[in-house]
Inverse folding.
């Protein structure tokens, strides 16, 4: 059971929920479980089986792109989804 | 070391490294590069100078053109200094909720400020600046997000200076904004220390600054290649402020919000090692944040929600 935090940008796709629960061993399985219930979310998160470019996925506060990507094992940590935002001041 | 300088621009870079042995005690040595000691008080002096130098050298930027840049503060202030000394007018596009000090400093330096929607954060400033530049070709936009002179300033400056100062670096930590610091400094450090871990500290934005209508409005700076980062770690505003306060209490180093975040991550990663050297780059000082509410707030996170901090 993994918590998935949903950013404001994606809440319309999930009926306004701020947080969802997904099942699975890896980040991919958890996200596919959640997105299976919300097809609109599926379309936003994935592009040809990989993460869409403007979605950042964090496990335990670390970007999965610098871990093992979607195959990163969740091991009880929670997932945060964020839109890619420009930083830099 | 220069005894005298012919212009403030000659004093950009060559910032000191100080060991943080009280902030991060233990077998791992942690050093901070104090970018607040640049002429306008931030690391962006390096970037602004490098971008204008490159544009002048290529002939793209000539007298008579006006400069335009999206910036929530530091880059604007650095560009304002360079623009003043080189004789270009400057306009900055800035989210309306950036702190007043930033606006005031920019105006004092002679720059104009155009507001972009606060709830769109830096993305909103980037979008508006790109629109303005497209409509009127008399603007020259250095555009730090896509300008190769940005990472190059850190490759040739920040990174080279660290390599010259230290015999060993195991971890580099810097704040993730445009990606310029991490890309350029990281590339230079990897040449001398092939196993160095390049770690980004990234702000966890407040809900109300994530007002993007859809993911398609997202933005990844063209100069940022996430593949070149070994770690990319979210830091909450509350953790950043705790880092900032601990730095001040333990070392007397008064950093800005991103400096607090970077120090927090440096301490965390130092804790993962048995021995070695961690270098963190503190981008600015705390002075420009004094008018912010978080210093006295009971709920730090909530008090910082509505602003983009780096």
């Amino acid at each position: 059971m993994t918590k998935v935090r949903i950013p404001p940008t994606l809440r319309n796709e999930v009926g306004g929920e701020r947080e969802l629960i997904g099942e699975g061993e890896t980040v991919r399985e958890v996200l596919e479980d959640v997105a299976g219930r919300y097809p609109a979310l599926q379309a936003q998160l994935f592009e040809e089986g990989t993460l869409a470019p403007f979605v950042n996925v964090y496990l335990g506060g670390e970007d999965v792109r610098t871990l093992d990507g979607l195959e990163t094992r969740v091991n009880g940590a929670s997932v945060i989804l964020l839109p890619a935002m420009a930083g830099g001041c | 070391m220069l005894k005298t300088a012919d212009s403030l621009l000659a004093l950009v870079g060559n910032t000191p490294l100080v060991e943080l042995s009280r902030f991060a005690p233990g077998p791992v040595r942690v050093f901070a590069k104090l970018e607040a000691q640049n002429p306008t008080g931030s690391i962006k002096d390096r970037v602004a100078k490098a971008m204008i130098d490159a544009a002048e050298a290529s002939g793209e930027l000539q007298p008579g053109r006006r400069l335009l840049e999206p910036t929530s503060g530091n880059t604007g202030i650095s560009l304002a200094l360079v623009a003043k000394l080189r004789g270009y007018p400057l306009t900055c596009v800035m989210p309306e909720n950036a702190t007043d000090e930033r606006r005031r400093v920019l105006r004092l330096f002679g720059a104009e400020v155009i507001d972009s929607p606060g709830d769109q954060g830096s993305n909103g400033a980037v979008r508006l600046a790109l629109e303005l530049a497209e409509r009127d070709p008399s603007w020259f936009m250095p555009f730090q997000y896509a300008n190769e002179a940005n990472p190059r300033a850190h490759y040739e400056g920040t990174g080279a200076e660290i390599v010259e100062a230290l015999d060993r670096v195991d971890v580099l930590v810097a704040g993730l904004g445009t990606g310029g610091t991490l890309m350029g400094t990281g590339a230079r450090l990897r040449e001398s220390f092939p196993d160095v871990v390049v770690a980004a500290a990234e702000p966890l934005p407040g809900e109300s600054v994530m007002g993007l209508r859809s993911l398609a409005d997202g933005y990844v700076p063209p100069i940022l290649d996430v593949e070149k980062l070994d770690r990319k770690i979210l830091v909450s505003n509350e953790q950043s402020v705790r880092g900032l306060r601990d730095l001040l209490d333990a070392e007397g180093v008064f950093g800005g919000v991103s400096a607090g975040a970077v120090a927090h991550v440096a301490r965390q990663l130092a804790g993962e090692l048995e021995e070695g050297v961690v270098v963190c780059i503190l981008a600015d000082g705390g002075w420009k944040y004094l008018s912010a509410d978080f210093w006295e707030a009971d709920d730090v996170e909530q008090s910082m929600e509505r602003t983009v901090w780096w």
Observations:
- Chain B has a mean pLDDT of 93.
